[in-house]
Recover the amino acids of this structure.
């Protein structure tokens, strides 16, 4: 097996060893080959519990090694099962195609040694290769809900033997957008199973809902309680018509890899066109593009081919892109959770980064919500040449996009 096919960047690890977590020799060998020396805090806490077959809710900030925290014990449990070669026993539901593909890569690395078979069922690509993968009786299916339901309706994906279920980005999988699909899938999954749920955020009502799908779950919460290290947050209050000028100024001011979030797909197309005409190396990603275009856009951004990626919220969660320096919220996120997930695309592991939010008077309530969740005011900043929108309550403005050292809580 070659050394690695997953992104690597510095991540906080514990002093524990993988040997101490109860893993078998073949999995330990795979972990070593991947290049992981010590478990991260979420891995050290989750792996021993998951190996016992207990249900679990795992909360840890984004980029803390959650994917391996569930793929390692699943690979271990299914590899050591006497029936492992015949049945689909693992189901991992992911909110986006990109997260599903990332997860499959981890499973292939950790389970490759003893022929763990996986099928990744995602939309936007042909059904044919997925039918072939399903005919090979995969041990684990990794899927986005819509495409999995297509296969279930065709009778090509059967979930009657699943005894380990993972909901990744669980709060999102259980929100109103996905819930109806997830419920239809869960109807086909035996109730006698292990259920693992992971996320960086878990609003209390969603967590109460999650409990209904689990039995006496263990709760592992290692989200930082104090100020998170590594992210500088900035708020630029501007009139809506001045957002574009503010963005262009920020792009010239902060060099480095930049992810610009925007709410609507049509606006992502418009904005990437604007930036291209301004001479910026830019790509865009949203759900109206083909899977091939999405993969290409992400790969080009990862490899530094284009410095800027304009994205809708499909890129907000779970994506592991090393070295993103700057997140710019061209549109303020719709929820506080979305703010936290978008922000989590920078300052991965032990790196540092900046999150700049452009907002107008219409966004006042949302700003308040974000500030109250983070427990700090977002520092108000300005860029030269762009008139700031003046709030009712006067605040100190920081000239020339000066960097602020304020660190606020990140979950
Ligand atoms: P994730 O939170 O699953 O997106 O993982 C974030 C990054 O941390 C990925 O690039 C992993 O390759 C890396 N990673 C996960 N676990 C470890 C570990 N124990 N040691 C070193 N790197 C790790």
């Amino acid at each position: 097996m070659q050394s690695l096919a997953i992104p690597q960047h510095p991540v906080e690890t514990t002093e524990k060893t993988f040997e101490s977590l109860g893993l078998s020799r073949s999995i330990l060998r795979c972990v070593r080959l991947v290049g992981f020396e010590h478990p991260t805090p979420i891995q050290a806490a989750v792996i021993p519990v998951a190996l016992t077959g207990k249900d679990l809710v795992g909360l840890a900030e984004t980029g803390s090694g959650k994917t391996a925290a569930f793929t390692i014990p699943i690979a271990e449990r299914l590899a050591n099962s006497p029936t492992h070669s015949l049945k689909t026993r693992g189901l991992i539901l992911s909110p986006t195609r990109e997260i599903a593909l990332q997860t499959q890569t981890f499973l292939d690395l950790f389970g490759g040694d003893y022929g763990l078979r996986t099928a990744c069922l995602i939309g936007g690509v042909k059904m044919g290769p997925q039918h072939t993968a399903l005919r090979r009786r995969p041990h684990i299916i990794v899927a986005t809900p819509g495409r999995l339901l297509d296969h279930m309706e065709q009778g090509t994906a059967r979930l009657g033997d699943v005894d380990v279920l993972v909901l990744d980005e669980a709060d999102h999988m259980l929100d109103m957008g996905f819930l109806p699909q997830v419920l239809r899938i869960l109807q086909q999954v035996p109730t006698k199973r292990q259920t693992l749920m992971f996320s960086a955020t878990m609003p209390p009502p969603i967590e109460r809902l999650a409990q209904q799908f689990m039995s006496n779950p263990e709760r592992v919460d290692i989200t930082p309680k104090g100020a998170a290290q590594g992210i500088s947050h900035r708020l630029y209050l501007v009139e809506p018509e001045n957002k574009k000028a503010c963005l262009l100024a920020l792009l010239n001011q902060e060099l480095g890899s930049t992810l610009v979030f925007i709410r609507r797909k049509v606006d992502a197309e418009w904005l990437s066109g604007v930036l291209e005409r301004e001479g910026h190396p830019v790509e865009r990603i949203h759900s109206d593009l083909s899977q091939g275009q999405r993969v290409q856009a992400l790969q080009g951004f990862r490899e530094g081919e284009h410095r800027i990626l304009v994205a809708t919220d499909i890129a907000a969660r779970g994506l592991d892109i090393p070295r993103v320096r700057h997140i710019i919220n061209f549109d303020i996120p719709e929820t506080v959770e979305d703010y936290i997930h978008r922000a989590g695309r920078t300052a991965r592991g032990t790196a540092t980064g900046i999150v700049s939010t452009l907002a107008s008077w219409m966004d006042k309530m949302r700003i308040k919500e974000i500030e109250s969740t983070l427990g700090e005011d977002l520092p108000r900043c300005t860029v030269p040449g762009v008139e700031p929108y003046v709030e009712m309550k006067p605040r100190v403005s920081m000239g020339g996009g000066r960097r602020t050292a304020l660190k606020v809580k990140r979950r």
Observations:
- Residues 6-9, 11, 13, 36, 39-40, 43, 63-68, 320 surround adenosine monophosphate (CB under 6 Å).
